[in-house]
Structure formats: C-alpha cells, structure tokens
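Supplementary Methods S3. Input chains for the assembly prediction are listed below.
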Amino acid sequence: MKAELITIGTELLLGEIVDTNAAFLARELANCGVNLYFKSTVGDNLERAQEVLKRAINNADLIIISGGLGPTEDDITREVVSLATERGLVEESSVLLNLENWYTTRYGDGNSMPIQNRKQALFPKGSNIVPNPVGTAPGFWLEVHGKIVVALPGVSKELQAMFNETIRPLISLNGSTRPLAIRNLNFVGVGESNLADLLSDIIDHQTNPTVALYSSTGKVRVRLGAQADSIQEGFRLIRPLEEEIIKRAINNFYGYDDQSLEEVVAAKLIKNRFTLALAESCTGGLIGHTLTNVPGSSLFFQRGYVVYSNLAKQEDLGVKKETLDDFGAVSSQVAMEMAEGVRKKTNTDFGLAVTGIAGPGGGSEDKPVGLVYISLAHAGDTIVQKYLWKGTREQVKQRSTLAALHLLWDTLKSHSKV
Amino acid sequence: MKAELITIGTELLLGEIVDTNAAFLARELANCGVNLYFKSTVGDNLERAQEVLKRAINNADLIIISGGLGPTEDDITREVVSLATERGLVEESSVLLNLENWYTTRYGDGNSMPIQNRKQALFPKGSNIVPNPVGTAPGFWLEVHGKIVVALPGVSKELQAMFNETIRPLISLNGSTRPLAIRNLNFVGVGESNLADLLSDIIDHQTNPTVALYSSTGKVRVRLGAQADSIQEGFRLIRPLEEEIIKRAINNFYGYDDQSLEEVVAAKLIKNRFTLALAESCTGGLIGHTLTNVPGSSLFFQRGYVVYSNLAKQEDLGVKKETLDDFGAVSSQVAMEMAEGVRKKTNTDFGLAVTGIAGPGGGSEDKPVGLVYISLAHAGDTIVQKYLWKGTREQVKQRSTLAALHLLWDTLKSHSKV
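Predicted structure tokens for the full assembly:
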C-alpha cells in the first residue's frame, strides 16, 4: 500500500510551527507496513490544495490530510476534498447536535454555538465520520476510485487519538503489504553512544529484525523491527534479540513501547501498596506533575512540597539551619535532610528530594549551574546522588526529574515483593 | 518571488526525524519577503525526486533542496539536479583538494579520504559553489531558465550557516518582492471561533496586513503580516490594527510573539515585588513547574504545596474538616480555603489554589471529570472560578494551569502599581 501525506496550513509554510504531525504519521504508517513515499505541505489556498490532492489520488492508495478542519475561513479541507472528488457537502445532523451540546455544556445555556462552527458538521457526500475522542470536531474518511482519503485535524493530540482509534484499524483491513512487527525498548540513565557501543555487534550484523537507536533528553529507545508473514511471526523473530539487548543493559531498561518511566514506577508503587512524598527545589513541581500524569497516582502520592526558599526547607521539611549554613542549600547533606524530612512529616514509605541549580543564573565556581543532588529516603536507608547536567534550565529540570524517577525505580526493583 | 522547498531523505518519510530544516527555511524565507507556497518531502528515489524537482522548476522562481549531499549511495541530490536540468556532473578540483586536506588534517597523513567522498566534489555543470563554513561538503546553486535552484545539506547547523552566508544575500540580489513584517498577538481564555467572531469585520476585510488565527490548547494566536518597502514600514502598517484587536479582547490578551503567559505573569510579579504561594491538587505540580521555567522565578515564588489527599489539605493548608465533609474536596469552598490557607501560612501577597477532577476516574454525576475550581486570595479579596473542561487528564491539567495563570494575570493588571 502506497501512502501520501498532505498537511494543510499557511502557518506551516511560515515556519511558525514544526510539523510534528508529519513525523508521527510517517512513523505510524511505517509501523503498519505502509510505504509513505511523498509528503507535502500546502497553504490555505483552495486551488493549489485541490491540485495537490488530485495528484495524490492518482499516485497513492492512501492519502492522509491533516489540518484545515477548524471553524474559521482558513479551514478549507472540507471544501478541498469536496471539489477534488466532485462530491457535494452534506450536513451531518448527529455531529451538529454534538457540537451544539458541547457548547451549551461548557458555557451554559445562554451561550450557544457560534454560527461559523456549524461548518464543522459538513462532510463530503459518502464520508465516514472519524470520531474525535479528545476534542469537538470529528474528521472523516471516504473511498474515491478505490483509493482512501482521510482527513484529520491539525491538533496533535486529536490527530493521534483519531489515528489510533480509527485509521490504524482501517489500514489493517485494507492492508496488502507484509506486516512489520515493532518492539521498542526504553532505557534511562545511559547515553546513546554508550548503548550503541554495548550493542555494536548486534547493530553491525542486523538484517531482519532491524535495530535502530533514538535518543531524547535523558532517554534512549532501541527499536526492533521485523517483517514477516504475520505480526505474531514478526514478534517471534524479535524476541531472542530483545532479551539479549535487555540483558546487556538491565539496570537502564525500564519499559516497552509507549510505557513511560513514571508509569512503570507508579505501577510498582501501587502493586506494593507503597506511598511516596516529594520535596522539590530546582525541579519546581515537575516531578509531581510527571507522576500525577499517571491515572490513579493518588493511590500512592499524597503530597509534595515545592520548597524554593531556605525558609520553606526549614519550616516544611525540618531541614536544619546549621546544615543550610554549613553546606548550602545545594548539597548532599540538605538533599538527604529534605528526603528524610518529607518522609517523616508525611509518614510515607518513600521520601524523594531534589535540590540543585537549574540556571541560567545562581551558579558559582564551586557550585556551577547544572549541579543537582537527588536523595531517596526509605526504611533503613537514605541514598544520595550527585549530578552535573549540561543544558538549558528546562533540560536541567527534565534530566533531574528523570534521574529522580530512575533512582526510585532502581530502589523499588530491589525492595519490592511484587 | 515564489519559492518551493524540497527535502530529500527516506528517514523523513519514516518519521524518525522531525523536519526542523523546513521550519527554519520557511521562517527565513518569510522574513526575506519570499512567498513559500509549497513544500514537499521525497525519499531517496532518483525518478520520483526528479519529477518533483521538474514540477517545482515549472511552478516556482526559487527552489531550495535540502539533504542528499552526503557521500553515501543514498545521497542523490547531485544526480537529481543533473538529470532534471539536463546538465552533466563535473568535478571541481578546488573542492576535491579541500576535502582531501580536511581528511589529512583531521585523521593524519596515513588516513586519506575514503574514495566514496570524492562524489562530494561533483556538481551539475554551471553551478556556483555554496561554501560550508561549519562542515566539509559545500552546496551549490544554479540558474535554470531564469529560475534559481539551490542545494544545501540536511545537517541543520550547516544548512543554517550556508543559508545565512550565501543564500539570503542571493535572494536580496534577485528579490522582486517586498519584505514581510510579522506581529503575533497572544490570547488566553477565549476560543478560536469566539475571537474570530469578535474580529469578523477585520478578518473579512483584510488585505495588507493579513490576519490569521491559530489555536493550541487553551491559547489563540492572531498573526498580522504586512508587506511593505521595509520591515519598519510593515510594522507601521500593522500598528493601528494591532491596537484595535487588542482593544476588542483586552481581557484575554497577554503578550506578543514568543512571550509566554508565565513570562508576563512572572515579570509583573517581580516588578511589583509581589510574592506568590501555590496550593495544587489536580494540577499535581504543573503550575509550579510552569512558573519555575521562567529564570528568576525564585524572586517571587517561595513555595508550593501539592496536596493530593484530604489530610494534606487540612494539615498543610488548614482547610477545615467540616468544609471537606460538607462540600467535598472539589468545591468552591475548599478552593477558597486552600488559597487563603496557603497565603496565610506562607505570608505571601498572593495565594493561588486549584482543586478538581483530572480523570479519567473519580468523576460522578454531580461532579464529573473535568470539573475544576480555581481560587486566588490576596489582600482584601478571594476570587473563585468554576470550569468544566473536556479532554484527557493531561489536557485538564494544562487548561487548569492556563486558567489559573490567567486569573492571576487579570488580577495583577488591576492591582499592580507598575
């Protein structure tokens, strides 16, 4: 199956937005075994967009359009598909009703839907509605001369949810190529090149499965892909390689595919009925935010303290004034007193603390920007780690959060019953 | 001048790389007054890439190709341009010498240049060399039937340096269009379509400046663009429109261009020497994280409490047990006691509190998922707001954070001296 991607939006041609939707769709299509051979971006111009779509329908089997489904005049995707496929637009009353209800629920009875939003209930004749589980406006797909044309919104979260729920199954139904099984292995606390060194013989001799490494701030992903007659057969090919790779970096491995470090940490805490309290200084709440992104986190997380000032460290966590005076707020001693203090005060199984200098200001020769101490207190032991990160303020916060969760994950593995 | 962008590289069609070069070039071309009307990505396929280039030469005045200039077999840009423009490839001896010298200097006399790198000294006949100030391989540009075709490497640093040094001056020399001044106005707490309604007469009658709306979670951006003889003249054309638009939605406007809401809030707090404390329930630390992304936030932010449990709300903030029993943790009463409690406890000017149900679990008929109360306590008054958000857990957290900062921003505007 040959696919083509069309993103519609003048803002993408002005460089104000990096087109992450294209990267997402490209990756997902590859995972489905669909061969994406062309992608293009066209502005909010009816004529030009029509021409591009007509050409795509001639060349490809599957055409995915993203963007241009909003309520404003710039949003031209409906008209473009209607004109290029010579099908009139019809109003879907069920969609219209949903849109109107949404406005009334959200803004109260007095506030009805703006008239221009009515446009979002229009679809080219013969369209199938693609439900939008996380937003108001649905997308659509239709068959044109045996080809499939799909239209999804430009908002990433909506596009991704709709692709996952509706378009992926649609592709499987129409799939003609040999499926590609993909398994991602996620690692933390190891650099991309160090992991590549560790796996160099495997990387050098890869055929099917293929092996590729991708890194993002503080994390590395190893992607194994195997083409086979069935997905099951593909995963059978992947399994021995997967086990070998995990074995070689077992202390850094934390999960598969879309599993996040916070998810595996949360699952482990919940399973063991452990509780956790946080004491954050330079991360400013990011650890709490990250952990509470996991549904059900209230089962183990009861409270956190963002203690930016020295007074807060003393009053809320019982850090001693002498410790602050003698060693400074960014020190292993203060990190440990924060971890022990928050654990004692909240009566939890684990107390996790971070103190450091996120920058760009506040550094000195002795204590440069990027210096961070992380401490974890639990029954019988308090661990402390020192890091010196490079990068921007946000990167220092992110790397510290990952390292803190990594420390918690490591400790949980050796101190858990289940 | 009409421009088209072609990026060459199979990796871009596999979604393994987000195409930041395209965003860079798109933005820079807009700044040069060049109208980018189409961009496309094609894999490492000689025939397909040729077809795309031929079409581009027919349609545009300036064609910029990025990628495909490396030494490996996948690197096909030279051949593509050579075939599409029917010009043979010739070896540039000066470039070859440079490449060889670079290898000897870097790896020592014993290590000569790999034979395949010789390819990087080949150029379509009649090409002008584009020097590469930060890497080994140069790019090239040539005139074809009065059109300009430019080829630059895919490595971002090299592409950007080469664009700045050679291509931008080249465009000015050939430029026939006028530069484009761009001003973005940022709004919060208003939907895209409501803002479009408010500005409908302006949007309907736009010519130069142009007006366009873009939305992301909880925020809307209005982009004004004016073409004129100079950038200064462009901004002069924009100014009256800019002022009119801000006037119509003054309560929702918070900043220009890349300014974030947290930045303007932080600047206002610092200027007025105000202090702030946070009491977060369903946002889990996201407000603290967002505010502490701003450098210097320790000047106004001293501490925050993430009070997930009822016990924490009582112990840390002094929320009354009866209030929790009578109205529940997600109620305007508890939100107000949280805001007043955190302000009193920390002795700050402002106490900002959020309590709600982020979902996906925890909702009921009375108190559905997405129900959020935000409260702000300051000298003499405590404000409380009720919201009912739609969306995922993370979206509820994000929208609540934006709404909380919006409330703070609004209050600061009317209670600040500077």
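Chain B has a mean pLDDT of 90. Residues 27 and 36 of chain B are 9 Å apart (CA to CA).
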